Amino acid sequence: MSESRRTWQDTILPWTTCVAMLAALFMVFVLVPSERDQGIVQRIFYFHVNLAWMAFGGFLLVSCASFWFLRTGSRRADRLAHANAEVGMLYTTLVLVTGPIWARPIWGVWWTWDPRLTMTVVLWAIYASYLMLRRLGGEDDTILRYAAVLGIVGSLDIPLLILAVRLWRGVHPAVMLAKDEDAGLKDPLMGWTLMVSAIALGLLFTWLVSLRARLLEVDEHVAAIHLEGVRT
Amino acid sequence: MWTIVRKDLAIELRTGEMASSMFLLALLMVLIFAFTLEPERLAGPEFLAGLSWTTLLVAGTLALNRSFVLEREAGGLTGLALAPIDRGSIYLGKAIGNFLLLLVAGVVLLPLIAILLGTRGLAPTMVLPLVLLLGVVGIAAIGTLCAAIASRTRAREVLLPILMFPLLAPLLIGATRATAGALVGESAGELQSWLLMLAGFDIVFATSGWLSFDYILEE
């Protein structure tokens, strides 16, 4: 392991994330006009929507990395899947936190079983069970394969889940108001704000994943050294 | 593959352990529902469908947990993995065994729950057995895979429901809606989209279990 390797992940990534995040915050809170009907609380959507997309995208990455791991047995792929699941879980949690903050003043309830909400909460549970398996699994390497299988099976579940909740709640339209997408088109600045915060959150996602993946790598080395120490 | 099914069924028929404990647990759950939720309010197809699937799922978890723990205790899985057969066949054999057990449980439970909670206003159609079949196949497909994973970890029994329930979410939504529909006399045509979704679920997860079992049993 190269101890003091300083790659773009240590130099460029934190700074660009920082700048993009500040720019996004400035645009969300200062620059962009408030949406006419929903008022100031609508601004949370610039983060909420992007977080949701990335949470779902994160699961796609988990399953791709899992597939890569099962094919090649590469530890790097396994660490990538693990790190992506952790950050994806964080993002899903944030989606579930930011959503109700918006829903309470606009819909009048904290929670409703709308298709998207249902999907997100089940996605959260799948992430949680995946991480639980990794934690409770045990020490040996077999657990990595189980986690990879679960990562792939979990992603297969998502299209079916989308279909099921659409069929279920789609027939009874719940409290569905004009969605953020319509609102975003009214002022060109809103579209730009959405994009800048997407970039900021995407960079943050990448940075956190790279940090976690490297931490996991260090963990593996520590465990290996520890094992060597026990043997001698 | 059929040998595994035969072996599992022979164990079950000889001891009756699983069937009796599943039956008792299911009955206790129905009692709990009646005590906690007021039996009068539970009549009607929606509740009946929901409670039946909940009961079947929890009772099924019991059986699924046993299916690999038994093998583990007796060292059977290592033997199976060493046998010159395809690993996918081991999965299918196990899944079929679990499926048959769950199917019997479902066939017994559904009328029992209906009788205990009230059959007023019900007009079950022939779609009902089909829904039960599709739902149970899905639970067996996911459950067998998750049970195999869970049985080889530290947490074992704890982990199976945690792994299985989120993945079963689409199936449970579909199976309960379709069951509620079939109980009040809706035809297969009206329930078509649900039935297709359930069938799709079964195919996807039976196939992925069959394909991924290679990685699960690998030592």
Write the layout of secondary structure elements.
The complex is a heterodimer of chains A (232) and B (219).
Chain A: H1 12-31, H2 45-72, H3 75-107, H4 115-136, H5 142-170, H6 180-186, H7 188-231
Chain B: H1 2-15, H2 17-37, H3 45-74, H4 76-82, H5 87-117, H6 127-151, H7 159-183, H8 192-217
Describe the structure.
The complex is a heterodimer of chains A (232) and B (219). Chain A is mainly alpha-helical and 232 residues long. Chain A has one domain. Chain A is built from seven helices and no strands. In chain A, helix 2 (45-72) packs parallel to helix 7 and helix 6 (180-186) packs across helix 7 (188-231). The longest helix of chain A is centred in the last third of the chain and has 44 residues, at 188-231. The two termini of chain A are 21 Å apart. In chain B, helix 5 packs across helix 8 (192-217) and helix 6 runs antiparallel to helix 7 (159-183). Chain B has one domain (2-217). Chain B has helices at 2-15, 17-37, 45-74, 76-82, 87-117, 127-151, 159-183, 192-217. Chain B has eight helices and no strands. The radius of gyration of chain B is 18 Å and the shape is globular. In chain B, 46% of the residues are buried. With 219 residues, chain B is mainly alpha-helical. The mean pLDDT of chain B is 83. The longest helix of chain B has 31 residues, at 87-117. Chain A binds chain B through residues 70, 122, 125-126, 128-129, 132-133, 136-138, 142-143, 145-146, 148-150, 152-154, 156-157, 160-161, 163-165, 167-168, and chain B through 142, 145, 149, 152-155, 158-159, 162-163, 165-167, 169-171, 173-174, 177, 193-194, 197, 200-201, 204-205, 208-209, 212, 215-216, 218-219.
